[in-house]
TrEMBL record:
Signal peptide: none
Highest taxon of source: Bacteria
Organism for this UniProt entry: Leptothoe spongobia TAU-MAC 1115
Name of the protein in its database record: AAA family ATPase
InterPro entries: CobQ/CobB/MinD/ParA_Nub-bd_dom (IPR002586), DNA_Partitioning_ATPase (IPR050678), P-loop_NTPase (IPR027417)
Record PANTHER family: COBQ_COBB_MIND_PARA NUCLEOTIDE BINDING DOMAIN-CONTAINING PROTEIN, P-LOOP CONTAINING NUCLEOSIDE TRIPHOSPHATE HYDROLASE
UniProt xrefs under Pfam families: CbiA
Length: 204
């Protein structure tokens, strides 16, 4: 079973969107799993309630419950678990990072988001998961801003995922309908970006 933790000290960077689209990508491939929703806003849980299917399941949880839920998921034969974490909650994010096989750090290509990476870098270093941590550029509006963000991430020294997401309405429209982009518009550009990310993740 693979555990993917989505962490960032910065709010509004797209953690929940990344979490649900990873889970849906594995779901459409026939894998079984769940999303652990550690954000008090429970956005992933609300998204799950909009779905007509039971998979992937969403479970609201606090940081101290993560390990037990993962053990139970593995005992029930789950193929994956995706952990969605809240911003500004070091203990929960630390707990999620510690149990992860892969830590993904979504970041928008803006100065505040890039500046916040240093705090998340400290967190994954404390969890001893810096090698397993990868930054995913999210909601890039232009190629120029994306290139600037890539250079800044390299200067910090964090790994940069070779796949990124651009600003596309399919991400918000699919989320609002309780879907992932691979369900909402399987042949669209947003779906292609998710597929590219998943091909890379499958090799880790």
């Amino acid at each position: 079973m693979k555990v993917y933790s989505i962490v960032s000290n910065k709010g509004g960077c797209g953690k929940t969107s990344l979490a649900v689209n990873i889970a849906i990508a594995m779901h459409v491939e026939g894998q079984s799993g769940l999303i652990i929703d550690c954000d008090p806003q429970a956005t992933a849980t609300v998204w799950g309630q909009q779905r007509e299917e039971d998979e992937p399941g969403t479970i609201p949880a606090q940081g101290h419950q993560i390990k037990t839920i993962i053990e139970e998921a593995e005992s029930q034969g789950c193929d994956y678990v995706v952990i969605d974490t809240p911003p500004h909650s070091d203990q929960t994010s630390l707990a999620a990072a510690r149990v992860a096989d892969v830590v993904l750090i979504p970041v928008r290509p803006s100065l505040p988001d890039i500046a916040a990476l240093s705090y998340t870098d400290d967190l994954v270093s404390l969890a001893k998961k810096r090698e397993q941590a990868h930054v995913v550029i999210n909601s890039a509006p232009t190629k120029g801003m994306q290139n600037d963000a890539q250079n800044a991430i390299k200067e910090i020294g964090l790994n940069l995922a070779p796949a990124q997401f651009w600003q596309r309405v399919a991400f918000s429209h699919s989320f609002n309908s309780g879907q992932g982009v691979l369900e909402y518009d399987p042949s669209g550009k947003a779906a292609a970006e998710v597929k590219r990310l998943m091909r890379w993740l499958s090799r880790l």
